[in-house]
Each structure stands twice: as structure tokens, then as C-alpha cells.
Amino acid sequence: MLSHRFASADDVPALIDLVDSAYRGKRSKAGWTTEEHLLGGQRIDAGMLQSTLDDPAQEILIVESDAAMVACVAVERRAGYGYVGMVTVAPTGQGGGLGRHLLDLAEAHIRGVWGLSRVRMTVIAQRGELIAWYKRRGYADTGETEPFPYGDPRFGAPKRDDLYFTILEKPLGAASPLAAGDQP
Question: Residue 149: what are its φ and ψ, rounded to 5°?
């Protein structure tokens, strides 16, 4: 049975393992979200996660199955929109609808708790299959881009010199905040 909750500092080691397993290294090749062909090294580190957890404008939602962490997503409240990042499903759980469920949770939080009516994300532009998956979920390419943080090992070791991010956006419909204390 699936359940979800917000991450705490105690979850940092498990979050690092989950995120790295989905995006980098040999374990990531068991799923379709691997970035191993584009980047080596780490995807996230303890300092980055702790910074997210310490920021009152950010949350990390965790999905568990039988008390085991199987997915996570970071959400951030920004001026006029919510930002979704670190969308992660364990490689062995990919392809079964868990990613869609994770996005639904993130979007419900952004719309319902924060009262925002649109969401944005950045995706490595060379990840065509992933961008297509997000487009099937209602996201559209804004035409905007951001540079890849070359030279910052916290984001991994690039295997190509042409990486950059494309910005995707999705309208969430009418925003109506949930009652205080409610969660998606």
C-alpha cells in the first residue's frame, strides 16, 4: 500500500540513495530515467538536501510502499508559481504509474496548499523521452532555457559539453488553498 509524507533530516541518506539509483550509476540502468549516458558522479548530496529541507519555501514529498521509500519529489514555492524538481521513482518501480502519482501529489500540494495555479520544472534538454513524458502529463515547453552548472561537481560529472535545461510549464487550473493543516 502506498503512503506519502514530507521528508525530514533523518531521510537524507535514504533520499541520496534513491535519487542516485534512479539517475546515475549501474543501478539506474534498470529504469528508463537514467542520466548515466549524459552524466556521471552524484545526482544529489547531503548538503543540497539539507538546504532544501531547511528552506521554508520548499518541501520534499516521499512516497513509501510498505514503509520502504520508493519515490520522492521536491516542490518549491516561487513568485507566482510552484517549481517541481528531483522527480524520482526507484528504477524497479518505473513504468507502473508511480511517477504520474508523484506528479499528482506535487501538483495538488502546489495548487491546494500554496494556492498557485501553475507549475514549472527544468529538464535536461537532451532527455527527449523524459520531456515527451512530461508533455503527455500536460507540461509545455516555454521556449526558455537555463545553462547546465558545468564545473560544480555537486550536480555530477558531465559526459558532454552541450548540456542545458529546457523549462516546462503546466497550468494547474483554479487555485483554492486547502484549510490550514490539510495536505494533498
Answer: -80, 65
The pLDDT of residue 16 is above 80: yes
Side-chain-facing half-sphere of 126: CA atoms under 13 Å: 15
- pTM to 2 decimals? 0.90
Residue found under cell 503512503: 3
Q: How far is CA 105 from CA 10, 36, 45, 98, in A?
A: 22, 27, 24, 11
pLDDT category, 140, cuts 50, 70, 90?
A: very high
The correct answer on CATH 3.40.50.2000 for the domain covering 2-171 is: no
Q: Mean pLDDT, the chain, as a whole number?
A: 92
In angstroms, rounded to a whole number, what is the distance separating the alpha carbons of residues 113 and 184? 8
